[in-house]
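DM from R.C. (forwarded with permission)

"hey, sorry to bug you on a friday — could you get me a structure for this? deadline for the figure draft is monday and I only need the backbone to look sensible"
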Amino acid sequence: MPLRFVHCSDIHLLELAGNSPQRFFNKRLTGGVNLLFNRSRKYDGGMFQKIVAAAHAHGAERLVITGDLTNLALESEFEHVKRHLEAVGMPVTVIPGNHDAYTRGSVRSHRFEHYMSTFMEGEREPGSDYPFVQRFGDVALVGLSTAIPSLPLYAVGRVGDDQLARLGRFLATLRAEGLARVILIHHPVVRGVAKPRHDLLDLDAFGRVIAEHGAELVLHGHEHRRLEGALPGPGGVPVPVHGVGSGTYLSQKPGRHGAYSFTPFDRAA
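My reply, with the result:
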């Protein structure tokens, strides 16, 4: 049976109340300046409610968000996001983006996983957070993390050798079971589409896993614009890759405006 879901990304829901100035004496200093003079004027968190309303209008069974739920990975932001997701009125699946791992402290404390665990329930290998697998009839969502802390003005990501090995094993198992495999990842996986300093550092290694095991669809965000591409799967059969723009971006430029995608997905889709 198909899984009807809405995919969005990079919603960047902001809530800074209750944070002392000391919380910004690190990488958040540049991020805070960007919020003050740029992001706060170009993004509207209220647009997320329009995505939720559209998901209900489509009769979607699930909302899928591929990372960057926050801006600076502060507890206040995660609490704000969690309240919004709990009020969606349908099941939600999330994975982290680079903004959700904005500082080393947020990663060490597993802040994203602590606040978002309800929306990442699924099968895992023992002792690991990612990948996780959620099964829905003939469809399996496979959630990855590319979220790593990086230097100011950088937004790179990495899957990592251990996570890639686990991904390969899951993809092989799900393929043997005849399930349609939908991979959720934050960073683009097709070469040449990411902006400078926005790259997935182990893009080629990810591509080798797909070439060996295949998948039916790869969904991502990160670049705040619509991107369509493909990766070679087993035997060179293309695996479609779809990148969605930021869900809360106010731009009216073609391909960059606030966006979501609706997918009634099954193996025949």
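R.C.: lifesaver. The mean pLDDT is 90.
me: no worries. The radius of gyration is 17 Å.
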